[in-house]
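ARCHIVE CARD
Drawer: 12
Card no.: 0347
Subject: one protein chain, sequence and derived structure
Cross-reference: see card 0346
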Amino acid sequence: MLLLLVLSNPIVKGQTTNITSNTTWGSYVNSSGATINIDNGVELTLTGNLMNSGTINLFGCNAKLTIASAVGVAQSGTTVKVLSGSYEENNPIEVPAFVAVVGDDQRSVNVSGSQKTSNLFHVRKGVKLANMTFKEHLHPAAAVSFPTTEIAENVGGGKWKGPYIQNCTSDTTTGTGLYIDGDQARLLKAMNVDSFTQYNQGGVGVAVTNGGFAQLVSLFTICCDEAVTCDKGGQADIANSNCSFGTFGLVSRGVGSLQFTGLVTSTAAVSQDEVVLN
C-alpha cells in the first residue's frame, strides 16, 4: 500500500520536524534534505521533494505529500491512503487503472485543484475513489471524469470494470460532480457510484454523454441546476437516490449515434420475439 502522508508543520531543510503520537495532520510543502524525527528517536532524511520524486518510509509505507505525486508512482493494485487534511492539487490528477485513492473520512479530507476550471480527477478502468470531499471546481470542470487527452482503455482485457466513486461529496457552485463521456472510454463506458452527494449550487450533479453509462446508487443532489443529465445517447440507472431543491431533476437531450440498420425480410406475428433482417 502507498500511504500519502501530510504533516501539520512545514518540513524545512536544515531543521528537524518531530512526529509524535499527538501530531496533527495538515497540508504543507516540504524541502529536500530535511530531517524527520519519529517518536522512537529514529531519524529519516528526505532524499527528494515529496511533492515530486522523493519518498520516506513511515509506518511501513511509502509517504508522499500530495495525491498527484502518490498516484504518479502508483502501480496496478496500489491503494493510496489519504490522511485527513486539505489538499490543493496540481490538477487534473491522472489516476492509473486499478489504483484506489481512499481518504480517512469524507468530512476530513478536502481536495481541490489549483486550476479551478479543469477537471480534478481523471479515472480509468478499475479505479476507486472513496471518503473525500471535492471542492472549488468550476464550470466546465468536473470533480471526476474519464481522461480527456487519451481514451480510458480496457486494460488487461476481459470485461469492463468501471471506475467506482464511494462515500464522496462534490461541494462547489457551477462545477459538475461526475462527467461520463462515452467517447473517452472503451466497451461499456461506465462509471459506478455509491453514496455520492452533489452539493453543486448552480452546477450539475452527474452528466452522461456520447453513449456513456452510469450506475448511480444513493446519489443525493442538492441545489443543482441539473441533477442528472443524459445527452447524445448517454444512459443512467438510478436507485435509492434523491433530488432536493435545485432547478431540474432529470434532463435528457439529443439522441445517440445509430446502432443498427437493416431491412425486415419476413412478416412477424404479434408478440413474436424474433424479427429477421437482411
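Annotation on reverse: The longest strand covers residues 190-200. Residues 6-13, 19-35, 37-57 have pLDDT under 50 and may be disordered.
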